[in-house]
Amino acid sequence: MGQCGSLPSPWGDPTAAGPEAGGDPRNARHVPPGTLELFWDESLPDSPEQQSFTLQKCHRQLGTPVTPGIQPVFRHFQLHHSGTSIPVFVPRATTLSVQTSSSFQALGMQQPLELSGQQPPGCGKCIPVCSDPGNAAGCCGGSGSSIESVRKGPVMCSTGCENPFAGLVALLRAAWLSGKTRPLEYRVAQLEALGRFLEEKKQEILEASALDMGKPSFEAYLTEILLCKNELNNTLNNLCHWMKDEHVSKNLMTQLDSAFIRKDPYGVVLIIGPWNYPVNLILGPLIGAIAAGEDPCWVPQGLVVTVSLLSCPLHLPTGNCVVIKPSEKAKNTERLLAESLGCYLDSDCFAVVTAGVQETSRLLENKFDYIFFTGSPSVGRVVMAAAAQHLTPVTLELGGKNPCYVSDTCDVRSVARRVAWGRFFNAGQTCLAPDYVLCTLEMQEKLMPALREAITEFYGSNPRESPDFGRIVGQKEFQRIRALLCSGRVAIGGQTDEKDLYIAPTVLADVLPSDPIMQEEIFGPILPIVVVASMDEAIDFINERPRPLAVYAFSSDCKVVAQVLERMSSGGFCGNDTLTHMTLTSLPFGGIGLHQKPLASLQKG
Questions:
Q1: What average pLDDT does the segment 173-182 reach?
Q2: pTM attached to this predicted model
């Protein structure tokens, strides 16, 4: 990008003298030092009420205001930014204004919009969607100074006259195009800042998790903090290698050329997180988006095949800028991320948006370069439909019904302990949890007392009083899960308390494939057992249904485990254990969807 004095000829030279010195009349104007100018070329046609602009920082005091009628029209844009020329898109009827200390100092780091006087009828009744937006500026070191007309914090326009997130996306895109995220040192600094966030805010994360879901401190530390730290360490140790071009073989015609694959980041990425692991499933994709390398677990990236002449300049790929949208259901964790994350990350390139369903729909109307969504299939369809309007690539992590086959040849006590731990961890609200058990009638009779013993060992005789058993996230989810208890026969547990959002660790026997609990992902502390006659019937049962996120198989015979792995299709596989394959940063994570992905497989003896 050009500096202040290298603006292309259609705009004139912003540092040149005015007409009183024989220069271009467009330069006869006064621009305060430190002010960004917005150059508007009236000769260009509008494209759905938008034009391409150039932001250029100018340090000068020249002449008098520009003469009316002289093109282009200049508009001031108060923003603390580097001295670069950056193309952005801004709606014609919108004037952008922010605090002078930083681009996104307000809470949530959402760029506020100040609608101009040329508003559509009825427009202008805007509702704040964040609380106390001034705090983040103070904790991030902002000056706290503001323009009188600035409306702090993100706003939602009740009449839909202007997308309230357009300014935010435009500014993030401008920051990305500036090349600010290009250097390795920048990415390392942002990743290390995430590490400091996890360390310094550890207690706040544990407290927020307990308030949102009654999550035990051990579970919260393991899933929300430790796994993120492992991901960070793995990324920092490999980032330099991931950023390198991968040179490939050449044919006779291209022997004098360079042929390589470049891991090229997308640009502006949107990450929409879930409520069940609200820190882990935000920071995991965020780490990959910052690194933009070849991390197999999370990184959104494009593989660009290039044949370049030796004389062509080479450059490192840039990192992504990110809009982070935490789940509004985990209110305390959402507030923690909104208020604290911006104190560690560069607020010019990373923004936290707090929004409900309606506001998120408006957010999805914007053009993103990549969307990473974790949540339910029904919402995933909405996200994909919105992304299709801009042909935006999407990763959807949607969970599913993960089967667990238990053969007749196994250590029953070990199986019961490992299945119970995986099913009732986080009160069953885990996308990778074993959703149901497939076994013979004889094995069901053996498993029942072993499962009862394991549940008592883990949570005591009354799990409701156990500090190690969590709660359901909200009333809607509680009602849905409780309704599933009508399936089969309650063999263990079954107690509920609506006021406390408590559902006991429950095992259902004699469940039929047609029962309601087998028609949807349970996402709660209920484990149904479906009786099958053999391993072949179990494999057929799995293959007749949508391909799951994970498959679990238990057997003392390694050939049985190998057959299950060979004959079914899923995103991940774990033999003789549950969930533990997720702890390995060396394994990819995800389902199959429309494209076959590498199978994440962990088998234990």
A1: 92
A2: 0.72
